[in-house]
Amino acid sequence: MKHLENHTMTEFILLGLLKYTPTHFCLFVLIIMMLIFTLTGNSLLILLILVDHHLHIPMYFFLWQLSLIDILFTVSFVPKMMNDYLLHKTIISPFHCGTQIFLGLALGGTECILLGLMSYDRYVAICKPLHYPLLMNWPLCRLMTVSSWTSGTVNALIHTVYTMRFPFCGSREINHFYCELPVVLHLSCEDTLTYETGILISTTILLLIPFSVILASYTLILVTIIQMVSAEGRKKAFSTCSSHLTVVSLYYGAIIFMYMRPISSHISGQDKVVSVFYTILTPMLNPIIYSLQNKDVMGALENMLWKCSLYSKMNI
What we know:
Blueprint: E1 12-14, H1 22-51, H2 58-87, E2 91-92, H3 94-127, H4 132-135, H5 138-164, E3 173-174, H6 181-185, H7 193-226, H8 231-259, H9 270-292, H10 295-314
Parallel strand pairs: 1-3
Antiparallel strand pairs: 1-2
Helix pairs in contact: 1-2, 1-9, 2-3, 2-9, 3-5, 3-7, 3-8, 7-8, 8-9
């Protein structure tokens, strides 16, 4: 078997997501198409937000940060998974394994906090529109964004260093397509119960606190929407909030299922299927959800296409 190729006892063996069957090869092609769409869609969304001055407001500032995270999340794991599948490669060094743990935790933690900030932004915009310029001023938005990146990075660094210091004995097979903390920790031959408590605490901070902010924000938003007199206002508010809630449901559902369970309860092979939601599916859906349901973004796209068409005609 491929995973029994020569390796040292310090290396890990990634079993991957796909097998070498016709069905899984079709899935391989599908994932490549999703990767291309993810990179194209999120890059285009970032370009529109940066170029169009109508989108220079906090809501879209947070949105292009989300798109950046989605791009980094995807390119950190999916291309290597595709390359390993084509080359029948299964070995990964401890350094690269630790790097993947760090990137997954850093980007995932940052996105959790960012989604909470986006819900607070929508709450202020809908429930306190007159106070919006004061409560969501640019210095505060930049500070919140830097804080989210810093929190996610520091949390990831601590857990990565601590996890990779555990001794790993016996089988080093990781039934996953990348090194993710719960799966790697499961291979340790030491008692990790105390450390799992630390993971639960940090997970509560990075997941449940932002998630609580999201629930509180949208509860208040829903009350405000119901009280709106204007039908057009209700429709616009529902459209904006529904897109955000769709992303939150997909992302938080998978993350909470993955990180808020005891390590011993993780079933071999199940984790990698769950991880597909926040490494492949959600990053692809974000630009669709935030563009097709958003008149401002679609208007910016039409404006850019019109300018490109006009420029090309002038150079003929």
